[in-house]
From TrEMBL:
Signal peptide: none
Family matches, as InterPro entries: Ig_E-set (IPR014756), ML_dom (IPR003172)
SUPFAM superfamilies associated with the record: E set domains
Residue ranges crossing the lipid bilayer per the database entry: none
Protein name as annotated: Phosphatidylglycerol/phosphatidylinositol transfer protein
Amino acid sequence: PNPIVKGGMLSINISGETEIAIGEGASIIGTAFYNGYPINSYPEDFCEGWVRKSGGECPILPGKFSCGTTMFVHHGQETNVVLHFDMTIIIVNNDSEVVACMEGVVASVQYD
């Protein structure tokens, strides 16, 4: 949903093209920023939490790829408000090489 509803489920799909393989043990790290300050970071095993959930396998060979996941969005302290966050998502191979970076603004709403 847009905006994201806290206390509900969120489906995220990503697609792109990589010039190098994304191997077993790669991590995906989503970091949310509010007013320029990091407020949350969500590291996860990319192959287990995203690729396999989409029916794929690692390594992802160079070329186009697409995968996704569904997650529960926990409640925050704010209620009845829409907040806008800057979001950075990176995919890092097991050798710490950054293989993908995505940035954007997301909106989140919290109800009583």
